[in-house]
What we know:
This protein is an all-alpha fold. Helix content is about 55%, strand content about 0%.
Amino acid sequence: MRYKTPAAFLSALDQNLRAISEKEGIDVPRLRKQMIASLSIQSRQVDPQLYSHAAPVPKSEIRLES
């Protein structure tokens, strides 16, 4: 599912975490901070192999069509 804004994502995350905490007795604020920290770390990690095959395109090969 895609969310239109980060706030919508966090709101859905909070609702899900509250439901989990009621069932499992988990500390929601701590779990939420851990999940957000994990997501932000993952978003900054880029696999160099994804771009290892890419080579710069020479300017002579770039054609602009109008």
